[in-house]
Every structure is written in C-alpha cells, then in structure tokens.
C-alpha cells in the first residue's frame, strides 16, 4: 500500500509499510496507521483526534478496528510531543495536525475524499470542531465527551466533582477548584485555559455527531449537550445528532457511578458511529438531541485574578514568610549568648511556620499532579494532610500571638531574631487565608 507524507496544505504520496502513513504539520513529522475495511468500493474515512496527555495510535486501535469493520477507513496516529506538554499546547496546531491527517486519508486509494471526517475525544472535542471550522475538506465531526465550556472552567468543575465524591468539603475544594486553577492560568501554566469552544462551533457547517456519557465526571455533560444544541440551532446547522449513553463515563466506557471504568464501551456507541457516518451519503440529517443529563452541580466561570492574587505576589509572600521563619533557627547557629529570649514561643512560631509553608508547597504539588482526583482518607470533611496543615496554621497564629505578647511585656533583647519570626507570621496570615489554610 501507499503511504503519504503531507504538509497541511499539500499531500505528496510516498512509499511506506502496508497501512502505515506519515505526514508533516508545522515542521513536525507525525506517524500513524490506516485501519482499512475489507471489500471494494470507496469507503468513508475517520481521523481520530486524541484526548489530553501523551497518546499513540494504539490507544484508539480498538475503536478504529470496529469502525473499519463497519466499512470506514480509520486513521490513528501518534500525538505530537514537540510543542505539546502539560505547560504548552496550541489547539490550532493540534487542529492542523488533524487536517494533515485528513489530507493523508483523503489521498489513499479506496477512500472517498468527499466523506472523510474527524473524531475527537475529550480535549479532541475542542480540536475536532476547530479542524472542521478551518477546512471544508472535513466532511463531518464526531465528538466524544466534548465540552461546551472553557478548559479552566471544565477542570475546576471536575476537581470539585471528584473532591466532593471523596467526601471533601470546605476550603480545600475552593483552593483546588478555584484559587489553584485561577493562579495556574494567571501564571501561564495552564495553556489554552480560556479557550471558548462556542465561537468555533458557530462556524461548523458540517454534520455533527456529539456523544456523551450520562455519568461523565470530567466534562459537565448536561451543559455540553445544551450548548451544542443551542449553538448549532442558532447558526442554522441542523445536521446534528446529540446522544447521551446511560451508565457511561467520560470516554463512553461502561461505569457504575462515573468514577470507575469497567471493561467495554457503552452498548450501541460504536455501532452508532458506524451507522451515522455511513448514513451521511443518503442525504441531509434531521436534527436529533437527547435531553441533557442531570449534573450534581453547574460549572462556574472563574473570576480573573486581583492584583494581590497574582502568581508573583503570592510566590513572593510565601518565600518571604518562609525565609522569615527560617531566620530564627539559622541565626541561632551564630549566637554567642547561651540564653535565648522568648525561646519557647519563638521556637514554636518558627517551627510551625516552616512546617506550614513548606508542607503546603509539597501538598499543593501533589494535588496539582493529580492527587485531587484521589483525595484519600477524609476526616471532618478534610483530607488528612489538609487537616494537619490547617492545625499547623492555627499553631502559627497562636504561637505568633503568644510570642508578640511576651515580647511586648518582657521588653527583652533578641529583637532581630524574634522580629523576623513575627514578620513571618504577619505575612503568613493573609497568605494562609487566601489559600484556605485558615478558612473552615
């Protein structure tokens, strides 16, 4: 068989092993495989667009093989790693990758170039409609677990959903789902955070098949169904089918509650994709939409950061407080006097301050790296690490008050050392309130 090495704009055939293809987009050569149907005649085609994170072609091979059995040539490819990471991504570039794959599939023998579309899962649910909006060469768009809201709003909703499912309430939920997301976005560490899918969906004129799991806990599915239907109706694109599968999670795998993933896909999902794509040749679709599934809570648009919430301000206050607390034990290494004024309360202040600031950083990294999705044991609505950090934060306040009162009453020396520890407490309190350590 032939393969193709293509740029976004111009495909060029080249020899390759049977079924394998390669194509170029934005200076990067991507590799994939076409899973072709058996039998003669021109077949429709699907390019499968990845969800977030690292993916290769084998992640979607099961679906591709099923689509091929339904008579659809399916291209699966290895996702780019250059220009794509946790802190770097561009949906427009990913859409161009998909369009390069579309051109590759359209150029293959046995594929009807007029019937090649895109399929996108999760993050691909933002990318696939963008590819369709950018090129009339895309014949249709299929989305699975697509969002009608921006990535930051979706991620905030998902974090809150998982934490509350784990029994977490109170300030930790607000910290992870709001303060954390807003800070990452403000720091530029959450790429495409504010991407709005609605203006793109307004430009899609091709038939759309939108699929969701009733028990999706990563994407707010009820909002997505409503937004897709309202947007397509408003712009006059009435060739849509919006389907909700019961007892199915985000990727349309079977589930008991949306938080687990059982073997096998939701019954009817893969068959529907096959019959829907094949049925497009019979003429325009009639609009069809299932009722939006119930959500436990609605997603909320995140407010922009105030000046005092800026990442550099927060990092600066945290670092100064940490240094101020550390100054007390460090300066002890150079003291000449054996007796230390206010030793007990000041030591408590320095110790609890160091534990609270350093411990918060460690736990924050753990939560941001995925720990929020598996919060672990919970006591009084708090995870055990968060409960410990809150108790330590209260210890900072109490020891700071005791140190300040004792220092004022005694009027003793050691002013610089004790003063630095107290300065750390003064910085710590508003910082700890902002991050929820001193909030119920």
UniProtKB/TrEMBL annotation:
Signal sequence bounds: none
Transmembrane annotation, as ranges: 315-334, 346-366, 386-408, 420-438
Transmembrane helix keyword on record: yes
Domain Peptidase S9 prolyl oligopeptidase catalytic: 93-259
Annotated GO MF terms: carboxylic ester hydrolase activity; serine-type endopeptidase activity
The entry's keywords: Hydrolase, Membrane, Transmembrane, Transmembrane helix
Alphabetical list of Pfam families matching this protein: Peptidase_S9
GO biological process: proteolysis
Database matches in InterPro entries: AB_hydrolase_Est10, AB_hydrolase_fold, Pept_S9_AS, Peptidase_S9_cat
Origin superkingdom: Bacteria
Protein name: Alpha/beta hydrolase
């Amino acid at each position: 068989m032939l393969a193709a090495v293509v740029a976004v704009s111009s495909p060029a055939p080249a020899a390759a092993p049977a079924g394998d293809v390669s194509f170029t987009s934005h200076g990067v050569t991507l590799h994939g495989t076409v899973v072709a149907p058996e039998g003669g005649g021109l077949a429709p085609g699907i390019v499968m667009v990845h969800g977030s994170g690292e993916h290769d072609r084998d992640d979607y091979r099961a679906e591709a093989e099923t689509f091929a059995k339904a008579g659809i040539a399916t291209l699966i490819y290895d996702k780019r790693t250059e220009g794509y990471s946790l802190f770097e991504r561009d949906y427009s570039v990913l859409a161009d990758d998909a369009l390069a794959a579309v051109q590759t599939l359209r150029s293959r023998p046995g594929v009807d170039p007029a019937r090649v579309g895109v399929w996108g899962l999760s993050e691909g649910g933002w990318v696939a409609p963008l590819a369709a909006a950018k090129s009339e060469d895309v014949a249709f768009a299929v989305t699975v677990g697509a969002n009608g809201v921006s990535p930051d709003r979706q991620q905030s909703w998902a974090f809150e959903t998982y934490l509350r499912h784990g029994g977490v309430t109170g300030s930790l939920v607000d910290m992870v789902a709001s303060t954390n997301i807003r800070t990452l976005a403000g720091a530029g560490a959450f790429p495409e955070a504010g991407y709005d899918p609605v203006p793109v969906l307004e430009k899609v004129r091709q038939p759309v098949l939108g699929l969701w799991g009733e028990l999706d806990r990563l994407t707010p599915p009820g909002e997505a169904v409503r937004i897709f239907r309202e947007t397509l109706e408003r712009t006059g694109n009435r060739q849509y089918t919006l389907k909700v599968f019961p007892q199915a999670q985000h990727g349309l795998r079977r589930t008991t509650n949306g938080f687990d993933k059982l073997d096998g896909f939701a019954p009817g999902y893969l068959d529907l994709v096959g019959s829907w794509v094949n049925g497009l040749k019979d003429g325009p679709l009639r609009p069809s939409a299932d009722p939006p599934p119930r959500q436990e809570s609605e997603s909320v648009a995140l407010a922009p950061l105030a000046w005092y919430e800026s990442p550099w301000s927060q990092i600066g206050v945290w670092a100064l407080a940490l240094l101020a607390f550390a100054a007390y034990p460090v300066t002890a290494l150079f003291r000449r006097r054996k007796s230390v004024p206010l030793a007990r309360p000041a030591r408590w202040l320095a110790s609890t301050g160091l534990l609270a600031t350093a411990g918060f950083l460690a736990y924050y990294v753990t939560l941001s790296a995925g720990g929020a999705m598996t919060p672990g044991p919970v006591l009084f609505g708090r995870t055990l690490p968060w409960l410990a950090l809150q108790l330590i934060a209260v210890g900072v306040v109490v020891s700071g008050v005791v140190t300040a009162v004792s220092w004022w009453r005694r009027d003793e020396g050691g002013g610089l050392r004790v003063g630095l520890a107290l300065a750390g407490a003064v910085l710590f309190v508003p910082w700890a309130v902002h991050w929820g350590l001193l909030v119920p």
